[in-house]
Amino acid sequence: MDSVGGLEMKVSFKARLIAFAALAVCAFAPLSAQAGQLETEFDQLLGTSPRAPGPGVQTPPAPFRMPERAPERTFAADALEMRLLSLAEASHGRIGVAALDLGSGRQVAVLGDQPFPMASTSKIAIAATYLANVDAGRLSLSDRYPLLVPVPSRKFDGPIAPVRPGTLLTARELIVLSLTRSDNHATDALLRAVGGPTAVTRWVRNTMGISEFRLDRDIATLVRDDGAINPATTVDRRDSITPLAMVRLLAQLRQGQWISASSREFLFDTMSRCVTGRNRMRALLPAGTAIAHKTGTLSNTASDVGFIQTPDGRNLAVAIYVTGQGGKQGRDSRIALLARAIYDGYAGQGSLRASLRR
Q1: Which of 340, 338, 273, 280 is nearest to 310 (CA)?
Q2: How many other C-beta atoms are found inside a 10 Å radius of the C-beta of residue 226?
Q3: What is the separation of C-alpha 276 from the centre of its chain, rounded to a whole number of angstroms?
Q4: Ranges under pLDDT 50 in the chain
Q5: CA–CA distances in Å: residue 342 to residues 11, 99, 149, 272
Q6: Counting beta carbons within 10 angstroms of the beta carbon of residue 58, is it exposed (0 to 12), middle (13 to 18) or buried (19 or more)?
Q7: Which pLDDT score is estimated for 79?
Q8: Residues sharing a CB contact under 8 Å with residue 262, sequence separation 6 or more, in sequence order
Q9: Closest Cα to residue 320, out of 152, 137, 136, 94?
Q10: Cβ neighbours, 10 Å, residue 333
């Protein structure tokens, strides 16, 4: 674990900020006004009162990578970067953001390489691991498994929280519950079926080539032991991912790598029916915007990752991880504002060229 107080922004990041200074004189004021307008819109929409809360592994094929040629910079790119830097400033808790246009490869990120708690956004990788086993003929969507219901236990009382078997459901039903309602009992049933957290980590790292992904605990244990570390001030690498790595994971799955077309269709159709996080990514997007996403929530942290489609047909892979911000409403509001900023920054901006890595 690393103290955020000891984490320093890279020299390249500081150089970018210096380079943006002249731009900021004329551009930051209107950007701040836009951000303020969005915050006002958020308050009007949602109100301001608090709300209740292994051996034999073969070398994998080359994973999806961004184009190496340095993109041309434009005012539109600089404006989006400045906007995200303003909205994701970390005085009230760390915020990590990444977005990728799947068509053009244009990317933008703030703290994109810093680990954040995955919380329930890991359920996408768990479901994808199960579906990869279905494609390989080892498992089936009609296989039945019991829900795994936690048995009351003290925090940190053993490395794995005790559970008991519950209702038998098909794997298809378990994936739907896991991704649409973030059901922890269903997720742990899937996790046990594929071989546990180690099996998911091995598949994501060795098959997808995403080394920044790390799943250490089942959901029952993660929830039982939640709160020991403050993610707003401390980086805990257990059960974590970086925003840029999550965007790569989403992009590879969407672009037809690693799982079949039928599995991919089932995965993303299910994500499009997610009912959690109404005050997060979707809250400030225009009515009717197509979005397929998965939320995550733990002590002092909230997240939302998935796909947003712009009116001109762009498919954006987006990952937003927020800590602190004074409470749940503050974290949800920040996610909503960042998602709208990304949507506005990409929508209709054919000249956008953005690649701010940190």
Answers
A1: 340
A2: 16
A3: 14
A4: 1-35, 38, 41-43, 45-75, 350-358
A5: 25, 7, 38, 19
A6: exposed
A7: 83
A8: none
A9: 94
A10: 24
**Amino acid present at 197:** P
- Please report, as a single letter, which amino acid is at residue 278: R
Name all domains of the chain by residue range, CATH numbers in brackets: 11-47+72-346 (3.40.710.10)
Among residues 355, 328, 319, the alpha carbon closest in space to that of 96 is found at 319
Residues 6+ apart with CB under 8 A from 192: 145, 148, 218
Q: Please state the three-class secondary structure of the chain as a single string.
A: CEEHHHCCCCHHHHHHHHHCHHHHHHHHHHHHHHHHHHHHHHHHHHCCCCCCCCCCCCCCCCCCCCCCCCCCCCHHHHHHHHHHHHHCCCCCCCEEEEEEECCCCCEEEECCCCCEECHHHHHHHHHHHHHHHHHCCCCCCCCEEEEEEECCCCCCCCCCCCEEEEEEEEHHHHHHHHHHCCCHHHHHHHHHHHCCHHHHHHHHHHHCCCCCCECCCCHHHHHHCCCCCCCCCEECCCCEECHHHHHHHHHHHHCCCCCCHHHHHHHHHHHCCCCCCCCCCCCCCCCCCCEEEEEEEECCEEEEEEEEECCCCCEEEEEEEEECCCCHHHHHHHHHHHHHHHHHHHCCCCCCCCCCCC
Least Cα distance to 270 among 55, 65, 126, 61 occurs for: 126
**The pLDDT value given to residue 84:** 94
Nearest to 88 by CA among 97, 77, 99, 80: 97
Tokens 């292994």 belong to 54
Farthest-apart Cα atoms in the chain, separation:
62
**What CA–CA distances, in Å, run from 154 to 87, 120, 157, 225, 260?**
38, 22, 5, 9, 42
Relative to beta strand 315-323, strand 95-101 is antiparallel
CA distance 253 to 86: 31
| pLDDT the model gives residue 7 | 38
